[in-house]
Design a protein that fits this description.
Layout: E1 23-27, H1 33-40, E2 45-50, H2 52-55, H3 58-71, H4 93-102, E3 107-110, E4 125-128
Parallel strand pairs: 1-2, 1-4, 2-3
Length: 135
């Protein structure tokens, strides 16, 4: 499974910065691409951590941002956590679908890594989609 975000990614299909038997935390996991890649490459434990991509109603937020742009005003970023936050986590559907299809043991955690207590995760190698150069 390759999501459209990685259609033009030079490294997505072949490389993974995680070596076998390492524990990995995928920060900003979104659809879990790197989480599942790390698991497939033998990581001992993989934690997929996200909150923004999983909980914000991206379509509603984008419509609001386009309206702001058309009106020449800056969008209020605080609305992401209020008006556009969805407790049913609509953005996590792709992750859940892939997890079931792959019979994955990746651990999804809904949290903001900038404010969450990450100590319970233990020692892991941190990775994110920023390891890939999108062309």
């Amino acid at each position: 499974m390759v999501t459209r975000a990685f259609r033009n990614c030079s490294c997505a299909r072949t490389s993974c910065p995680i070596s076998a038997r390492e524990a990995c935390s995928d920060i900003g996991a979104w659809d879990g691409y790197y989480s599942f890649l790390a698991e497939r490459n033998g990581a001992s434990r993989v934690v997929a951590l996200d909150h923004y991509a999983w909980g914000v109603d991206i379509e509603a937020r984008d419509a609001y941002w386009k309206k702001c742009a058309a009106e020449g005003v800056l969008p209020d970023h605080e609305r992401d956590a209020t008006d556009f936050w969805r407790t049913d986590l609509p953005g996590r559907r792709g992750f859940e679908l892939a997890s079931r299809a792959l019979n994955s043991e990746v651990e999804p955690i809904v949290a903001d890594f900038t404010t969450a207590d990450l100590a319970p995760l233990g020692r892991t190698t941190w990775c994110s989609t920023s390891v890939c150069s999108i062309t």
